[in-house]
Amino acid sequence: MSDYEQISVQTQDRVTTITLNRPDRLNAWTSVMADELRSAVGRAGTDPDCRCIVITGAGRGFCAGADMEGLQSTAGRGNAGSGATLDPADVRFPDAPGPDLGATYPGRFGYFYHCPKPIIAAINGPCAGIGLIMALYADLRFADDAAKFTTAFAARGLIAEHGIAWLLPRLVGEAHALDLLFTARKFTGAEAERIGLVNKAMAGDTLMDHVGAVTSTLANDVSPRSVAIMKRQVRAAYNQSFAQSLAIADEEMTGSFSAFDFKEGVQSFVERRPPAFRDL
Questions:
Q1: What is the distance between the alpha carbons of residues 164 and 177, in angstroms, rounded to a whole number?
Q2: Helix, strand, coil % in the chain, rounded to nearest 5
Q3: Cα(198)–Cα(132) distance, rounded to whole angstroms?
Q4: Is 168 helix (H, G, I), strand (E, B) or coil?
Q5: 7-218 belongs to which homologous superfamily?
Q6: Which of helix, strand or coil describes residue 56?
């Protein structure tokens, strides 16, 4: 889209692909990119022509972390500066179905969790620092098995930023999380799959075909309403007891019985035809 400088956006076949577009800098993160990604996810999250969002990188990188020029400026000032984007409070999805997450997930990437559409990170190359954090907020992650990953923070004199201290242990366990955070070592997409950081790693020339197969399923074969509710159920459950999670499930199940998509799901199965679920 012409109104973006550092990303490109395309919606086709109910899938919105957002491409970080600074290939000469391995798509290094800037405040402009942060604002544009937030805007693009917000638009896709409310676009009836979109049922799934893919985030990937142009060229040979996914996102090589914060742009070093920005880090040098920050180091000189001793703070992030007033230009940094810190809170995506303007991205909200108040009409999305499912339990209300409210202010449970604030911060730079909290809007990924609020978005009712599934978000996939297609990690096609180097993924470091804040680029890695952004990918961890995605719902699904697929990677080139040769892509290089690193947390990077300890090697730059920084700390576990933007919620990664909460996210990473939940994905890979405390032992792996502390290893990756403390050492800031580089690891491959193949290891990322082995420890559970990505759903699947594969040869780079097959990555987007695999992502395309997953998005085709999400865009055509399953209920957008069901996916949105389940996404919010899982995120809400991180801060609930079993009894609280079960009560919400019971409430949402009752609502599903009277929804169009339930009736359509049953009828399409009986009639042995593809379902025609409604858009959000």
A1: 9
A2: 45, 15, 40
A3: 11
A4: helix
A5: 2-enoyl-CoA Hydratase; Chain A, domain 1 (3.90.226.10)
A6: strand
13: left (phi over 0), alpha (psi -120 to 50) or beta: left
What tokens does 206 get? 């097959």
**Angle in degrees, 0-180, between the axes of helices 164-172 and 130-137, rounded to the nearest 10:** 60
- Tokens coding 214: 């997953």
DSSP labels for 210-258? HHHHHHHHHHHTS-HHHHHHHHHHHHHHTTS-HHHHHHHHHHHHHHHHT
Strand blocks (E) in 124-224: 127-128, 140-144, 148-150, 187-188, 200-202
Please state, in angstroms and rounded to a whole number, the distance separating the CA atoms of residues 123 and 199.
11
Question: Exposed (0-12), middle (13-18) or buried (19+): which is 20, by Cβ within 10 Å?
Answer: buried
Cα 219 to Cα 221: distance, rounded to the nearest angstrom:
6
How much is the pTM?
0.92
Q: Can you read off the two tokens belonging to residue 117? A: 């559409």
CA angle 107, 208, 276 (to 5 degrees): 80
DSSP code at position 269 = H
For the chain, the domains span 7-218, 224-271
pLDDT tens-digit profile, the chain (280 residues): 458 999 999 999 999 999 999 999 999 999 999 999 999 999 999 999 999 999 999 999 999 999 977 655 555 555 554 344 444 446 778 788 999 887 789 889 999 999 999 999 999 999 999 999 999 999 999 999 999 999 999 999 999 999 999 999 999 999 999 999 999 999 999 999 999 999 999 999 999 999 999 999 999 999 999 999 999 999 999 999 999 999 999 999 999 999 999 999 999 999 999 999 999 9
